[in-house]
Design goal:
Elements (H helix, E strand, L loop, with lengths): L2 H39 L7 H10 L17 H7 L15 H10 L14 H10 L10
Length: 141
Amino acid sequence: MSADEKMAKLIREKNKEEARLREEYEAARKEAEELRRAEEKTDRDKFWGEFWVWLLRMLPWFAGWCDWAKVDGEAWPYLLEKQPQFADKCGKWAEFDGRGWTDLLRSQPQFSHKCDWSKLNDDDWTRLLEKQPQFAEKRNK
């Protein structure tokens, strides 16, 4: 193989290596752009109510970022059960079901004035009165 042929071969190999590196760089750039877009999509407005309840039950200091409108009536009792300080954010008391009221009042009886007692069934009453017998008088109202 002549010197010119060797030189041409080296240049071809170098060009192939540069092309491969450009492809790798472009693929990495595209991946970084996709990750950036994904991060933009996961802002606080994308979180759903159940996730907020799960998060705030354990980490209440995230409340400043919560979209309270996304927390539905069935999820609120489970949040208030652990974090009653958020009661002023709840506008969905009427949406609580019997089980939700029971679970909430078993640990947070101070919310009894908001309860729609007619939503509690026999099982709910049994569970509630085990922990909070003072509500027995409300049973037939």
